[in-house]
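[job 4471] stage=fold_predict status=RUNNING
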Amino acid sequence: MLTQTTAIKALFIYPVKSLGAVSVSTLDFNSSGVVNDRRYMLVDSKNRMLTLRSHCQLAQFHLTQVVGGWQVSNQQGAGILIEDEASTDQLVDTEVWSTLIRTREKSRQVSQWFSEQLDEWVRLVEFDDLETRYCKVDQHQVPFSFADGFPLLVCNDRSLSQLSRAVDYPLAMARFRPNVVIDMPVDAEFKVSALNSDDGGQLLFIEPCVRCNVPAIDPLTGVFQKDLHPKLKAQLKRAGKVVFGMNACAIRCRQLSVGQVLAISEA
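[job 4471] inference complete, writing structure tokens
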């Protein structure tokens, strides 16, 4: 039997899909989902989304929230501001893993900057004002933006420590790109159906997160570690799939905070 509660150890948002994480003390929710998470996305000349699978160097861009927007910087410290109020009239039809989405180019200047950094023509896009996207879970329709298939990813700190020992390599949680990091016994996250807050909010656990090659990319260098990849795959295999962490969605949540204690509902 699991312990009755767990604490939130860390929270992260990813303002631009596939770029570096931003550590936050609170995770806020509004009518569009997680505030500032995957709010923007890069697309190529064929309007296809850019991901870490094909562009490992995306992990090398860092984001900082400033007055009026997000400052994005490269490894050399050069950067540009993504202004909150910036907008263009250029509509871009794209998709996130087969889900068709109408977007709008955010800023031609920012698109040009990213194009120069990546040495290919790309555009930074955001949801068009009239566009919506929902994750259907039971009777709930949960809004979210450019996340892959589910609004949130929850990972277990102790499972990461065990994995590091198993592959004999110090692994940073940044490799797995969670929104919420909890503290539970190893692999206990797979036995949870929900985490419950005192104010009636819930994190519903949906299914284990199937993993590709991204965890083998060093988040500090952007280098794919070829020797580490098969070790991770071998250790993370469950029921024939390579998984780490749980996809989740938030129901009736207004805010989550680091240090917050949540009650556990077992699956």
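[job 4471] summary: The chain is about 10% helix and 40% strand.
[job 4471] exit 0
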